[in-house]
Amino acid sequence: MSEIVDQINHVHREVGTREVADGEARTVLLRRTYDAAIEDVWDACTDPERISRWFLPVSGDLKLGGHYQLTGNAGGEILRCEPPRLLAVSWLFGENPGFSEVEVRLTAEGGERTVFELEHIAVVPPEMWDQFGPGAVGVGWDGALLGLALHLTGEGAPADPEAWQASDEAREFMTRSSERWGAAYEASGAPAEVVAATTRATTEFYVPKG
User: Fold this and answer.
1) CA distance 58 to 81
2) Cα 191 to chain centroid, rounded
3) What percentage of the chain exceeds 70 in pLDDT?
4) Which residues does the UniProt record annotate as the domain Activator of Hsp90 ATPase homologue 1/2-like C-terminal (predicted)?
């Protein structure tokens, strides 16, 4: 197993629900520890130049109450910003996105280690959840946490991200990620046959058979 694929093993995953004003929301939670000081991790998650190096280019009025836009992806409002521990944003994509928020929570663990938590809370259309389960967003967030890990260690993202996405290493990473989200879904109480179907659909979406 490559070092990049092994990054899957450093993440704890949980699946749950939460009541919000728009109804019942689904939640996915990722938690891992980085060998970096909390100030460094916070800066990597909030400085636009650094965000573009491990995630996506971001623009907008990047302050509390301002709006951000990730190139080709989500945008929204910065709801909470409490450096260096808490960042919460609305996470909106498409014409009728509905309720969707992301929270990043950081906790110092000693001088040079940081516990990173990312929770995505969203009201998901039933047909989408029934088809893909938590893996629909979970695999993407696993990729983001991988990018942050490589950035914090100075390795940086692959020189050609599109080529890497098609590589055997990336396909294995996404396959294992899909399987881990299936396990987290089952741990939340989902029936085994539902987990098997949603995991298969998620894997086929991210890792299509060539």
Assistant:
1) 16
2) 24
3) 99
4) 35-148
